[in-house]
Each structure stands twice: as structure tokens, then as C-alpha cells.
Amino acid sequence: MFIGGEWTQPDGGHYAVVDPATEETVGWAPEASRDQVHAACAAAREAFGSWSRTAPEERAAILARAADVIAGRFVPYAELAQAETGATTGTARAMQVGVGVARFRRYARVESAEWAIPPQINEAGPMGKAGVMGALAVRQPVGVVTCITSYNNPWANPAGKIAPALAMGNTVVVKPAPQDPLSVYRMAEALEAAGLPRGVLSVVSGRSVEVGEAAVDSPDVDMVSFTGSTAVGQRIAEVCGRGMKRQLMELGGKGAAVVLDDADIGSAVAGIGTTFSFYSGQICTAPTRVLAQRGVYDRLVDGLAGYAGRLKVGNPREADTVVGPVISAPHRERVESYVELGRKEGATVVAGGERPPYERGFYVAPTLLADCTNAMRVAREEIFGPVVAVVPFDDEEEGIALANDSDYGLIDYVWSGDVARAFRVARRLRAGGVGVNTVGRNMEAPFGGFKKSGVGRDVGSYALHAYSEVQAIVWPG
């Protein structure tokens, strides 16, 4: 492990990291003890004072050098990410390591951390004489930040936390997902090579729940940034609440794709179809709950069924593979159990529904469930796999009501040929983001969720706000 600037043997030994496509061992990951996690947090606390006073330009330069180191090792890092996650080659290169590099470069750009507030004229009174009061708002680092990252992207997700947190002058302890922590250790190597001072970043890993708990409950930790399930996020929030720790939570999603009767069906099918192909549906922003107006319902279902049927499922290292495996055997069983549940609830399996015929690898066929209602569990709960549920609706008001009838509210989508109509519907959706005729993202736009999909916003300049406290400085003019 990487603790306080030292590569340290784990107290708990090592465990195997398994390639989801081959079921072979990729490597051996360290299992930290509770004491080692707390030691990492203590090292971060000790390093905070000097790092927080380091000039922003110097911090930015280290991030830029780290980006260069990662870019210089791009292919082996992408191969490792692919082996750990089962991602296709294109995804591992562009969306995992490629986005990781881009995020380090983004936060190597120094932005002003202070802004003037208009002066206020005060009348004479109990607080003193009449006068003009000037004010300045200053972003200050929070302190020690624990970053707990998701398994679906071991490069982009950690980089999206580590880079802005370091840019703001925080010190960081990273607890990567147990399924694929090896890539995060490579990220630590890159930062070490870039000249990051000792103790500013530590990485601790483990399968035991105790490892994550220690990274959250340490008295040295001021903030927890977590990406993962809502259930785990709720438990973390309880601990943070008791210690008054800051939180940034990106939790579950059940993205509603509202397809109106004037939509371009080809565009809708291509966008919604990313649920089948992108990370094999293991992404919280996926449009997994499709709400189709009856005038286009049959065409949309037929289009999605055809799309799913054309996707090659298999070895992610083959150039024409579109759908790789899910992360593990237990997760495959979970996804398959939801498909069976959908059948029992009355949904029609239009595409997929059967395990692909491979002897090894945790593969799930892209699956389309039609004739669903919004009350079905397959339409309400996050499956986190290549499964789409389609629910019909009659008019615009009903579509909006169904979209908002969810515990989640991360990213929703609207397809309509009338842009004004699409924006009208988008503004009424209770979600942190809405895609209009696209599943694409603007990487400077705020990202986060309503309801049980999370707390706070990050990405772009919003991440700098997320990893900072705002201080007001007031003086007489």
C-alpha cells in the first residue's frame, strides 16, 4: 500500500483481483488493517499544513506532471484497467485512462479561489460608527479528504476526486473499490513520480468493510467523497453526521428516458442503447427506465430489441466486441435475478434474458423488458447491468409524473423533435441533470443528484467548490 509516502506491506496480507472476462487472477491487492488506515489518515493530517500553504501554481504543476506520467504509460495502464474491470479496449483507453488523464490536466489549470463582495454601507448603531464594510469570499481547503471510489471506472472516478481535492490544497486518503484497486496504485505511482510531497496522498485497499469504515470514522478525516450505492452512502452519511464531516455523495440512479411522440426514434434507440453497451450497464447515469409515449411505444421497443440483438457480447479484448462482462459472478447473479423478477412481475422479455454461452467470464446478455409498469421493482430499483425496462404512457403530464415517481434523481433524459417542448419537460424533472436528445455530457456542467441519488455537485469548477470551505473576510472601507 501507499501510506504517508511509503510503499508498505499490508497487515492483512493480499487477495486476488480477478479478470471478469477470463476469471483468471490479474494480480494481488493489499488488505489493510484498521490501524494502517488510521495511520494513512494521520499522515494526511500531518501533511495538510504545508500542502495547503503551497502555491496553487505549484500544486497545479504536480497534477500536470502526473498527467504526463500517466499518458506516457497509457497502453499498459489501459490494459490493467481492462483486466480489472472487463471493459472493452475502446472503453478502457478512452473512457477510463483517457478521462483520468484529462481530469488531472483540467485541475492543473489554476482558478481564482477568491472573489470580491459588493461593499455594504452600515448605519451607526450598537455595532459601531457608520461606515463602509468591504468583504472578500475565499475558498479554503476542507482538510483531510477520504475518497471512496467505484469499481466501474478505476481511473476516471478516482481522478475526478483526487485531482480537484489536491488542487484546492486538501490532503487525500483513497480507498478504492475492492474489485479493481490496482489501477489506483498506478495513479499513486504517477503522482509520486510527479513530485507529490510525502503524506499528501495515501492509498489503502481491502475487501473488509472495516477498511472503508476506518477511512470514514478516523478523527483525522474532515470530508468523505463517496461514489457507490445509496445503501452504503446512507451508512457513511450517518457516521459523517455524528462527526460533522463534509460529504460529497454520488449514489445510485434509475435514469428515466422520456421519449415523446414526436421524437427521433433512431436517436432515442442509439442513446438508450448505451445502457446495453457502455460498461455493460454498470453506470449510474444509464437511461435504464424508458418511458415511451404510446404513439411511438411499439417502434421504440422494436428498435431497442433490434439494437440489443446486434451487439456482440464476449471477449472485451476483441476489436468488434461491444458488451463485455459485468464485474463479478455475484453481480451477474444479481442482474440475472432481476431479469427473472421482471418475468414474474409480468414484464415481457423482448431481447436477451439468457446467459451467453461462454464457459468462463461473467457475461450478461443485453436484455429488454417491455410491458412494464412503474410499480415493478425492475422499473424502480437500480439493477446496474445491461437491462432496460420500458413503460408506456399516454400524455406529457403522465410521462413527467412517472419520471418523477422514483427514489432516485441523478440524470434523466428527454427525446422530442420539438426542442422547446423538450426543455419544458426537462425543467420539470426532479433530477440533477437532464439530457435533451442526447446521453452525452458537458464535462464542465455540475454533476450530482436529487433525492437518494446523492448530496452535492462536482465536475469542472463545481468540484473545486465541493472540496473547499468558503471563508468570508470583512474589513472597514
TrEMBL record:
InterPro entries, per the entry: Ald_DH/histidinol_DH, Ald_DH_C, Ald_DH_N, Aldehyde_DH_dom
Positions of the Aldehyde dehydrogenase domain: 7-473
Membrane-traversing stretches: none
High-level lineage: Bacteria, Bacillati, Actinomycetota, Actinomycetes, Kitasatosporales
Keywords: Oxidoreductase
Organism: Streptomyces aquilus
PANTHER family reported in the protein's UniProt record: ALDEHYDE DEHYDROGENASE-RELATED
Protein's name according to its UniProt entry: Aldehyde dehydrogenase family protein
Top-rank lineage group of the source organism: Bacteria
Gene3D superfamilies: Aldehyde Dehydrogenase, Chain A, domain 1, Aldehyde Dehydrogenase, Chain A, domain 2
One GO MF term: oxidoreductase activity, acting on the aldehyde or oxo group of donors, NAD or NADP as acceptor
